[in-house]
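Issue 218. Parser rejects a valid record. Input:
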Amino acid sequence: MDFQQGLITTIHDFGIPKDSSEALRIGLNKHPTAILIPCLYEEFSRPALKLIRRVLETLDGLQLLVIALSASSADEVLEAKAFFANMPFEVHIQWTNSPSVLELLKGKDNSSFNLSGKPGKGWAVWQGIGLATSKAEVVALFDADIRTFSLSYPARMLQPLLDPSFDISYVKAFYSRLSIENNALHGRATRLFVGPLLTSLEQLLGNGPFLNYLNAFRYPLAGEFAFRKELAINLRIPCDWGLEVGLLSEVYKNISVNHIAQVDLGVFDHKHKIIGSSPNEGLQKMCQEVLASILRGLMENQAETLNEEKLSSLEVHYRRIGEDRVKQFELDSLVNQIPYNRREEELGVETFSKLIKPAIRRFMESPTTELMPCWSTVDSCNKRLRGDLAIAGTVQI
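Output the parser choked on:
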């Protein structure tokens, strides 16, 4: 790995094996810390979550584990509780879509907010942040499908936040997305869409501050991040596939870049999405929502918008840059002796390029989006909601 620094403080993996468990234990015992895992019930039948549980069992000093669970019945929730029984710290299984939660969040006492949300990861994350920050100073979020999870993941994500002398409030992960079966490159949404798109926007719009900020992240779509409570409770949470980029926009509005770090987690593998056969499927749907989130961030943070004249230019720029990136990834793969299907990657760029103009036009017709309100605002209007939410999302054995 390189050792370069830039706008965002970068914590590299220099490949020096060291046991970080003692430093992590000391930090966890000084600062109450929670781990939040948004989770679908189906993950309990897969090996990744079993691996995550085995690793987390060794975390000495963790205050709380919140599982923000989407389940179809109380029996599934009870299975999840049994799965995480006997952990050496408190575990809260939050049934995010339970009838009681749905009734509570639609209740008349919350009429000043739209808290019903759009079912999905963002809504689960919003509930989880509310519960985790009620007991913890620091919260780290990990997905439930990480097949390479190890103690180094929470250790490296949390340590910048557990040492107050560095004044870091937000940590974002980056990593090498490789399949553990054949070491093939993944992360196509980032490699083939977001990376070329941000470079294209920079060429069209110039080096604006928000674009520079997004470009400073090695993996802007990484779903693993951590923050201090003071920041977490002041973030509005997007409820679509633009969650990660939308959160970066929220972080940008709340703190300066010198309070942000990105951390290399090394090799990383989790479930891979298909590109999909239509714009409403797979990565195609995801990339359109990510694009809308980027454009919204440009409007909010850089007062920048795209007119009709620039749409064709953006598509042409993106296509050229995307094709250049394919050549770069092919050479990178060749030297590292990992498989690479150049034609398949070129078809991916071609597919994504066709989404750009119609997606931007739809966005321009309706640029606003629903965000879950930040918890500091919710608390100011309803101080009981966190406690009521925890009760509503709990199933008693």
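Fixed in the parser; the record now loads. The chain has 15 helices and ten strands.
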